[in-house]
DNA sequence: ATGCCCGCTTGCAGCGGA
């Protein structure tokens, strides 16, 4: 089974790129972020024509998350992160696919730091960590996949010293991410490739992709109930080089049969 | 320190992204 996460940066603007990648990569389940579209503008017909069922949680202009499953409709289990009923941003969606619980997240960027956006990021991360802890207690096969907007370590940044004060790399968010790992979650790509430089994002500016000035922001975290099934993991970085591409590339893992 | 690029908008310039 192949599971992927992809920040599409506008699902309608990127639809040709998304469909081309789905046809090429043939993932069984996909978490999408940054739909940048309200619910009624989700391109369901095109997704279904490509062979995928979908659940989604959209929002006008910004944010928005979706979960796709090949040949099936994901069974939605949650569409808000618990703990703050006033939070209206569409950044979390959870569904069961093929016996696995998939949490699809788009963690806030948090820049500029300090400031209200930074505070929102820390609050969101705290709520996410509490929900992740609750999910661990269930003992279920859970995967939390998405754009975490955190580079977990030095080797996840092309030039770490330039990013020390940035909301994506400040000690607070790196510590929050490390806390997830300490709690028992497995960072799939880092687990299988402990020393490699791995990037999942290249800025549109300054020819970042051409210079390979990238960041690793998109992660798949596996609960202990499913981590032993992990086989391979990678980044489809060539997709970032396609015309009209997102600034993120798709990230994927494969799992052995249960 | 800013713009560089990109998609989005009760749109044609401003915002958010990372």
UniProtKB/TrEMBL annotation:
Entry superkingdom: Bacteria
Textual note on the cofactor: Probably binds two magnesium or manganese ions per subunit.
Site keyed Transition state stabilizer: positions: 149
Cofactor names: Mg(2+); Mn(2+)
Site (Interaction with DNA substrate): 248
Site feature location: Important for catalytic activity: 218
Domain Endonuclease/exonuclease/phosphatase stretches: 4-248
CDD domains documented for this protein: ExoIII-like_AP-endo
Keyword rRNA-binding: no
GO biological process, one term: DNA repair
Binding site for Mg(2+): 7, 34, 147, 149, 247-248
GO molecular function, one term: metal ion binding
UniProt entry keywords in alphabetical sequence: Hydrolase, Magnesium, Manganese, Metal-binding
Catalytic residues as annotated in Swiss-Prot or TrEMBL: 106, 147, 248
Listed PANTHER family: EXODEOXYRIBONUCLEASE III
Family (UniProt): Belongs to the DNA repair enzymes AP/ExoA family.
Protein's name according to its UniProt entry: Exodeoxyribonuclease-3
Organism this protein belongs to: Devosia crocina
């Amino acid at each position: 089974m192949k599971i992927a996460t992809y920040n599409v940066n506008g699902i309608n603007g990127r639809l040709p790129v998304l469909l081309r990648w789905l046809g090429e990569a043939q993932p069984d389940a996909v978490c999408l972020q940054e739909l940048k579209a309200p619910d009624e503008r989700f391109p369901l017909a095109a997704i279904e024509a490509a062979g995928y069922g979908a659940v989604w949680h959209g929002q006008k202009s910004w944010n928005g998350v979706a979960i796709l499953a090949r040949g099936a409709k994901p069974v939605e289990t949650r569409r808000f992160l618990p703990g703050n009923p006033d939070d209206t941003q569409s950044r979390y969606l959870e569904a069961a696919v093929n016996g696995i619980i998939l949490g699809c997240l788009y963690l806030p960027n948090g820049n500029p730091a300090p400031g209200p956006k930074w505070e929102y990021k820390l609050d969101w991360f705290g709520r996410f960590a509490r929900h992740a802890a609750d999910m661990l207690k269930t003992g279920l096969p859970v995967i939390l996949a998405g754009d975490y907007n955190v580079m977990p370590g030095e080797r996840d940044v092309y030039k770490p010293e330039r990013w020390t004060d940035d909301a994506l790399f400040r000690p607070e968010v790196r510590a929050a991410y490390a806390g997830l790992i300490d709690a028992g979650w497995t960072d799939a790509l880092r687990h299988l490739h402990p020393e490699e430089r791995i990037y999942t994002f290249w800025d549109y500016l300054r020819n970042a992709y051409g210079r390979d000035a990238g960041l690793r922001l998109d992660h798949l975290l596996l609960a202990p109930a499913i981590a032993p099934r992990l086989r391979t993991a990678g980044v489809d970085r060539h997709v970032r080089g396609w015309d009209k591409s997102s600034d993120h590339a798709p990230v994927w893992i494969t799992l052995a049969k249960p």
